[in-house]
């Protein structure tokens, strides 16, 4: 039989009692390196968070640039086709163009060239703006006056 206050493998307060006869590891958190690693997660977050935010900003800007470019493609095509039929090309292009876009249509003989240039919306107002441009070409319809 065992004495009160004494476990099967040793005294109840000993490091051997709770671990089945094995010595408890050194340190408060189970390892001897716990003090050296304290705060490392905060430091890693402080170093990594700006990089993650920069990648997020660049990704959102790239998505905005691709979206604006596709809208410019549609607007340039609409402007070139409208001008090739004898209608107002810039007006047709403005209806399909993104906000703030410039639409220009040039007729050179039997060819109509429409160019749409638009700014890419950025997340910060103080950042330098970038712009995308797209050009579409169409042949004038026969019988249409220049």
Number of domains: 1
Q: Biggest sheet: strands, sense, closure?
A: 3 strands, antiparallel
Shape: rod-shaped
| Uncertain segments | none
Q: Average pLDDT, to the nearest integer?
A: 80
**Beta-strand percentage?**
15-25%
Report the order of strands and helices: HHHEEE
What spatial order of strands do you see in the largest sheet? 1-2-3
Number of helices: 3
Quote the distance from N terminus to C terminus: 114 Å
Précis, in short:
The protein has 146 residues and is of the alpha+beta class. It is 39% helix and 18% strand.
Task: Record the SSE blueprint.
Blueprint: H1 34-37, H2 40-84, H3 89-96, E1 102-108, E2 111-120, E3 130-139
Antiparallel strand pairs: 1-2, 2-3
Helix pairs in contact: 2-3
Written description of the protein model:
It is a single chain. The chain has 146 residues and is α+β, with helices and mostly antiparallel strands. The chain has one domain (34-139). Helices cover 39% and strands 18% of the residues. The protein is built from 3 helices and 3 strands; from the N terminus they run H-H-H-E-E-E. It is rod-shaped, with a radius of gyration of 35 Å. The model has no long low-confidence stretch (mean pLDDT 80).
Task: List key phrases describing it.
146 residues, alpha+beta, 3 helices, 3 strands, 39% helix, rod-shaped
